[in-house]
Specification:
147 residues; alpha/beta; Rossmann fold; five-stranded parallel β-sheet; 14% strand; disordered C terminus
Length: 147
C-alpha cells in the first residue's frame, strides 16, 4: 500500500451526517476496503466524534456512531504515551485544538495526509500533508468542545 490517510473528527462527522464533504471520505473508505490504502483514526478523535454525536442526538446517536465507525475499514490508533507527547508539542506550538493535534501527530507518525475540512489545520500545513474536503459554504465553523 502506498498511501495513508488520517481521518480527523471533521471528516468522520461529515461522513456520518452525509454532508457534502462525505463524498471524498466514502471514496477513501472504498479504497481502504479494497486494500489500496490505509486509513487511520486516533482514539482521541474517535472520542470527539462520539461526544459530538451524543451532544447532537443523545446517547442513541452516539451508539449509532460507534456502531458505524467500528465497521469501517479504519485502524483506530490508541493515544499512547509517545503520540500524546507529540500531540502536546504540536498543541503548544500551533493554534489548533488538542484533539486536532492528535490527528497531526498520527499523520506524522505514519507519514500520512490528514483528511479534513476544518480550517484550524491551515496552521499546520507545513508539518503534514492536508487533503482538504470541500465545504458547502465558506462560513463553516470548526467543531469544538464548546457547547
Amino acid at each position: 500500500m502506498s498511501a495513508g490517510y488520517v481521518l480527523d473528527t471533521f471528516a468522520v462527522i461529515a461522513y456520518l451526517r452525509g454532508e457534502a464533504a462525505a463524498e471524498r471520505v466514502q471514496a477513501l473508505l472504498a479504497e481502504a476496503k479494497a486494500g489500496r490504502l490505509c486509513l487511520y483514526l486516533c482514539l482521541m478523535n474517535y472520542g470527539e466524534v462520539v461526544y459530538i454525536s451524543e451532544r447532537k442526538g443523545g446517547r442513541p446517536a452516539a451508539e449509532e456512531a460507534i456502531r458505524i465507525v467500528d465497521n469501517l475499514p479504519v485502524e483506530v490508533v490508541p493515544a499512547e504515551r509517545h503520540l500524546t507527547f507529540s500531540a502536546a508539542h504540536i498543541k503548544a506550538n500551533y493554534p489548533l485544538s488538542y484533539a486536532d493535534a492528535f490527528a497531526v501527530a498520527l499523520a506524522q507518525e505514519f507519514n500520512a495526509a490528514v483528511v479534513t475540512g476544518d480550517p484550524e489545520f491551515k496552521s499546520v500545513e507545513g508539518l503534514v500533508r492536508i487533503e482538504w474536503l470541500t465545504q458547502p459554504n465558506a462560513k463553516h465553523t470548526t467543531l469544538s468542545a464548546a457547547p
